[in-house]
Amino acid sequence: MHKKKALVIGSGFAGLSAAINLAAKNFDVTVLEKNTTIGGRARHFSESGFSFDMGPSWYWMPDVFESFFNKFGKSVSDYYELIRLDPSYQVVYEGGDFMPIPAKMTELESLFESIEGGAGLRLREFLKQAAYKYEVGINKLVYKPGRSLTEFASLKLLVDVVRMDVFQSMSKHVRKFFKHPKLIQLMEFPVLFLGALPENTPALYSLMNYADMSLGTWYPKGGMHKIVEAMGSLAEEMGVRLLTDHEVKKINHQNGKAVSVDTNHGEIAADVIIAGADYHHVETKLLDQQSRNYSDQYWQKRVMAPSSLLYYVGLNKKLDGLLHHNLFFDTDFTPHAHDIYTDPKWPEKPLFYASLTSKTDDTVAPEGCENLFLLIPVAPGLQETEEIREQYFNMIVKRMEEHTGQSILKHIVYKRSFAHRDFVKDYNSFKGNAYGLANTLTQTAILKPSLKSKKLKNLYYTGQLTVPGPGVPPSLISGIVVADEVEKDMF
Ligand SMILES: Cc1cc2nc3c(=O)[nH]c(=O)nc-3n(C[C@H](O)[C@H](O)[C@H](O)COP(=O)(O)OP(=O)(O)OC[C@H]3O[C@@H](n4cnc5c(N)ncnc54)[C@H](O)[C@@H]3O)c2cc1C
After folding, report:
1. Alpha helices in 30-140 (DSSP H)
2. How far apart are the CA of 122 and the centre of ligand 1, in A?
3. By mean pLDDT, which of 153-162, 255-264, 435-444 is the weakest?
4. Distances (CA, A) of 237 to 3, 72, 472
5. Which atom of ligand 1 is nearest to the CA of 39?
């Protein structure tokens, strides 16, 4: 039988996942990627003996990755070696105080108890509730395509949704259990991955604490791009064509159906198109006005997840006192959060995150050297310049020098920065966002940009701006969900 031709725009995790899932459903799949390498925001590069992951660095929810590969008769271990980090990460406080977060639950409970009497047992109860949310959230809710409220209409699921604290904020929920500012900050940190403040994030997302503390922080040896390589290999094994340096310029349509795309290498015909590039870009640059789902006004009202100032740095020495993942919470987050979410502007004294994969992996830096990845979350849509990048770099390196008591600046042998302009240029990112659309209550499930075009019946969307949301595991799931919808609609 003639196989239906599916074109996937973009080779991020969502695009690759959609491609693999469609190939398994017997589609003839081609992925069109504008960049010269696959992986989207999770690309990597090597320079001067250092190997840098460009985007994601936290491997959480290992079960989602395992079940993804299991669907195709594979296992994560067929492609890469996973290492559980212990401590999982550390938090750095003002005055040089460090708090490593142990991977073992008994040690974690003791740590909580040592900070606040009774907090050890309360952590156990908090994580018990979070486990339930994870079970229902990750195994049932995130696989809903969000096309209609009827998807949530089963009585059992409605009861689950209510039990899952959808209408209470994460901020209130955490404060019911803990009082000490250090514990509150620690429990609220994971929802920052979802792109919104804890007061605007439903307490359903305490499932992220379960992912953090119970399931653990892992690292694929070689770096996060090992996941991309694994998915690229699996896609090719399944007959998917991965065409890099293929930028889609336009989606052509006839009689209410998408029929082909124009690329920098000419026109390519399709029976179905799955857009894994940033949703806003696809709507405003690849489609004509009448084929768009949403107006400009709609997009301007969306709450985007932050953008980031990123630095990839090679040091010609080892640094003491830092771990693989380090959260610099050495300053008050309130004014920084205000500058990201409420009144977008450059922050005066931002929090930041430092990752040193060379603490775990000797393949990512030359011997005796350190591989340093620095991230400052900032508001999307800001105007940035080389001077601004330099100013923030010097600011956070100085803080790291103060905290570790070691010189860093004069040991830099490689440095590259990446910010808004690069997000726009490399990924066609809306306002230079780093990780999509914030997971606020009014941007959840059916309230997210729809995974299906309302105008062209064979055009679909996947990725971090549609269901289920930002992050590597949700992007993998997004590809699965969209492939299932395509199959349902076309057969
Ligand atoms: C700095 C940073 C840190 C992060 N940290 C973490 C983390 O630690 N853990 C975690 O789970 N998640 C993290 N995330 C989020 C996670 O990386 C993303 O949610 C996920 O990678 C998004 O995948 P995607 O497929 O939706 O989008 P993308 O990866 O952006 O893929 C879209 C692809 O479409 C391509 N494209 C765009 N326009 C066109 C066009 N016209 N034609 C052809 N191709 C086109 C782009 O080049 C890109 O390859 C982080 C993200 C960033 C940026």
Report:
1. 62-70, 105-115, 119-139
2. 36
3. 153-162
4. 17, 11, 22
5. 49
Tens of pLDDT, residues 198-245? 998 888 889 999 999 999 999 999 999 999 999 999 999 999 999 999
3 state SS of 302: coil
Pick the atom of ligand 1 nearest to 32's CA.
Answer: 43
Q: Where is 98: in which H helix or E strand?
A: strand 97-101
Q: Is the CB of 432 under 6 A from ligand 1?
A: no
Which residue's CA is the closest to the ligand 1 atom numbered 50?
56
Give per-residue pLDDT as tens, 121-141.
999 999 999 999 999 888 888
Q: How far is CA 176 from CA 13, 194, 210, in A?
A: 36, 21, 17
Give the Å distance between the CA of 126 and the centre of ligand 1.
31
Ligand 1 within 6 A of 62 CB?
no
Contact 349, 329 (CB under 8 A): no
Structure confidence at residue 151 (pLDDT): 73
- Whether the bond between 335 and the residue before it is cis, its omega within 30 degrees of 0, is no
Q: Which atom of ligand 1 is found nearest the CA of 54?
A: 1
Element (H, E) at 157: helix 155-163
- CA dihedral (48, 54, 58, 62) in degrees, to 10, reads -100
Residue nearest to atom 38 of ligand 1 (CA): 277
Q: Which two tokens stand for residue 221?
A: 């040896």
